[in-house]
């Protein structure tokens, strides 16, 4: 199953009037892959991800997510993926445990499954002492790690992460990526958007969007070799300058 494509995108576009926020992008993502979707703020990453997770309809093109068509089977896509948005997605006025219980119900888990997952997640994240505290009291880094773990509650085939490490410190960013590695090792496909070019080094393959188009797509090693540079940031700068 490792070589099976779980995301297939062909000439996908999203227009707002005459403006092409996403302009005929094509790519595929294999099962268990960590796929980086890179680009500066405003490059079209979030618009693209909204189409892929079934909350925004494309203007044209084709895409299947976990075997489901983005036009006809948006609800099936939502049931088979996890999603963590740019902005913190959990409820500040609920406790850690209450958030886990609530989202477990949203994902259709049984009470027995929710009870088991809640215990596992609290232990895994080391949140025993704050499990009954409001999420609003947690540092941002802990909130982000909790949100990521909650997005995995229902064992989705694919998890979409939209700028998951924005605003957190470097140490927490590294810890977050260790969680991503673990999820990928367990077979979950990770689709992650970021404007931190150093995070591209952690991905199996990356695409780089510039003004709504994918201008480069390959492994970080091959991209750096092609553009004759030692860093992904320099690759991005060369592409952005045209």
Secondary structure layout:
Elements: E1 5-16, E2 19-30, E3 34-39, H1 45-52, E4 60-65, E5 68-69, H2 74-80, E6 81-84, H3 96-106, H4 111-125, H5 140-151, E7 158-162, H6 170-185, E8 189-194, E9 205-210, E10 213-218, H7 220-226, H8 232-240
Parallel strand pairs: 3-8, 3-9, 6-7, 7-8
Antiparallel strand pairs: 1-2, 1-4, 4-5, 9-10
Helix pairs in contact: 3-4, 5-6
- Counting DSSP H or I runs of 4 or more residues, the number of helices is 8
What would you say the CATH architecture is? 3-Layer(aba) Sandwich
| Radius of gyration, in angstroms, nearest whole number | 18 Å
End-to-end CA span? 38 Å
Tell me the CATH superfamily.
P-loop containing nucleotide triphosphate hydrolases
Broad structural category: alpha/beta
| Molecular shape | globular
| Helical amount | 25-40%
Oligomer: single chain
Q: Please, how many domains?
A: 1
Spatial strand arrangement across the major sheet: 6-7-8-3-9-10
> Major sheet, described briefly?
6 strands, mixed
Percent in strands: 25-35%
Mean residue pLDDT: 92
Query: Which regions have little confidence, pLDDT < 50, spanning 5+ residues?
Result: none
CATH class, anyone?
Alpha Beta
SSE order, as H and E?
Answer: EEEHEEHEHHHEHEEEHH
CATH topology: Rossmann fold
Membrane topology: Multi-pass membrane protein
InterPro entries: AAA+_ATPase, ABC_transporter-like_ATP-bd, P-loop_NTPase
Pfam families: ABC_tran
Keywords: ATP-binding, Membrane, Nucleotide-binding, Transmembrane, Transmembrane helix, Transport
């Amino acid at each position: 199953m490792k070589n099976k494509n779980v995301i297939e995108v062909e000439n996908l576009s999203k227009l707002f009037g005459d403006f092409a926020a996403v302009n005929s992008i094509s790519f595929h993502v294999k099962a268990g892959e960590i796929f980086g979707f890179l680009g500066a703020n405003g490059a079209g990453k979030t618009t693209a991800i909204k189409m892929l997770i079934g909350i925004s309809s494309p203007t044209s093109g084709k895409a299947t997510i976990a075997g489901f068509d983005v036009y006809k089977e948006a609800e099936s896509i939502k049931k088979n993926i996890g999603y963590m948005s740019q902005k913190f997605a959990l409820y500040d006025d609920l406790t850690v445990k209450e958030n886990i219980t609530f989202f477990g119900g949203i994902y259709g888990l049984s009470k027995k499954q929710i009870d088991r997952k809640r215990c596992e997640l609290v232990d895994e994240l080391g949140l025993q002492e704050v499990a009954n505290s409001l999420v609003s009291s947690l540092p941002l880094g802990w909130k982000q790690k909790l949100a990521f773990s909650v997005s995995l509650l229902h064992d989705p085939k694919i998890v979409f992460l939209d700028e998951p490490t924005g605003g957190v410190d470097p140490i927490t960013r590294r810890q977050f990526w260790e969680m991503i590695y673990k999820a990928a090792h367990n077979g979950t496909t990770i689709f992650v958007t970021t404007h931190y070019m150093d995070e591209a080094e952690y991905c199996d393959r990356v695409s780089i969007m510039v003004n709504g188009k994918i201008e480069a797509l390959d492994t970080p090693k091959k991209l750096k070799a092609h553009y004759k540079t030692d860093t992904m940031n320099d690759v991005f700068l060369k592409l952005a300058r045209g």
